[in-house]
Amino acid sequence: xxxxxxxxxxxxxxxxxxxxxxxxxxxxxxxxxxxxxxxxxxxxxxxxxxxxxxxxxxxxxxxxxxxxxxxxxxxxxxxxxxxxxxxxxxxxxxxxxxxxxxxxxxxxxxxxxxxxxxxxxxxxxxxxxxxxxxxxxxxxxxxxxxxxxxxxxxxxxxxxxxxxxxxxxxxxxxxxxxxxxxxxxxxxxxxxxxxxxxxxxxxxxxxxxxxxxxxxxxxxxxxxxxxxxxxxxxxxxxxxxxxxxxxxxxxxxxxxxxxxxxxxxxxxxxxxxxxxxxxxxxxxxxxxxxxxxxxxxxxxxxxxxxxxxxxxxxxxxxxxxxxxxxxxxxxxxxxxxxxxxxxxxxxxxxxxxxxxxxxxxxxxxxxxxxxxxxxxxxxxxxxxxxxxxxxxxxxxxxxxxxxxxxxxxxxxxxxxxxxxxxxxxxxxxxxxxxxxxxxxxxxx
Length: 444
Prior knowledge:
This protein has 20 helices and 9 strands. Strands 1, 2, 3, 4, 5, 6, 7, 8 and 9 form a 9-stranded mixed β-sheet that branches. The chain has helices at 10-21, 51-67, 81-90, 107-112, 120-125, 130-133, 136-140, 164-169, 179-189, 213-217, 237-252, 256-263, 275-278, 290-296, 337-349, 351-361, 368-371, 380-390, 405-419, 425-443; strands at residues 40-45, 71-76, 98-101, 151-163, 191-193, 196-202, 281-287, 303-306, 323-330. The protein is α/β, with parallel strands linked by helices. The chain is globular.
């Protein structure tokens, strides 16, 4: 089960940024002098907690230590970014040397504060051309201003998961490819019940789990920041077009208040009571994990997957989507950075290790070789997300010095738009740009 889709509150994010600003920096990637062949113990912290995830980590570590008998790895799981940041700030022997985080939004701050070491010198010493190992979009969200302070460790691709049985019953023969088709299908699959619903074709509101403004905006190929580094929401028509299209869908499906009342009856996103599992929604914006989770929950219908629809005038782009993922880096204050690099290199670039981990936790591999590996277990439902990850126009949200605060600011504006509280979207976007620019200037 991935964590990259879980929302981060502004309070948590700003607290993390504050802690990172005081994080200790150490020798740095270019000057690491420890002997990677010496006997050493590394502290590795990660966020996974489910038994299957923890087992997969342990198996990868066991393979690593077998190949590197001089390196012992002490593994600590279920670690939040807040705990990681506090430990990095405090330093000392108990602090992590290697860290894995679900929060790609923090990369800009990890890099800018030097809390994580720049991995470019390590890549160079190992003769690794990162542009030939990792897909371009994944490199974009793991670096900031040329500082490659993290590397991708598996990948999440977002698409459409749908109830094929409900589609067949409604006479729908294929998933929608364009936004107008998406709207038509969502309406056709919706079953009213009094002043509520028996089922909605799609829960389109931005509080609906993975249906975030950033996921949907990806289908318009947005540019969040201009060449001058300033926020670009008002200048790029993609944002207003996405917000208008989403608000129109909300209205056509019954309006914000009616949809939100129904959404409040939904079960937990990570439980068997997810509304897609229970038949309360027929289509779900989600990641590669949802189809297998639905099947594990014992659903009585056939599950299908497809890329998210694109705007009507961008049909040639169909197949793309939003990408995110887990990141891995070396603590800037670690005195064991060369040894730490051996672990990071293994877990992020070794094809066998990446494929084994992807197979175990049902995430998309994060290297080009692993994506093509015959050892990768690929079901028809999973292949959709592999293809999205490989699509040349799939995109992500860029790293920034303020972490993900700019995304929260945009998201808050999107909440206001869908509720009908914004009369002038372009003017509102311009004001949002000003707030984002102010926040970034403070972070820098």
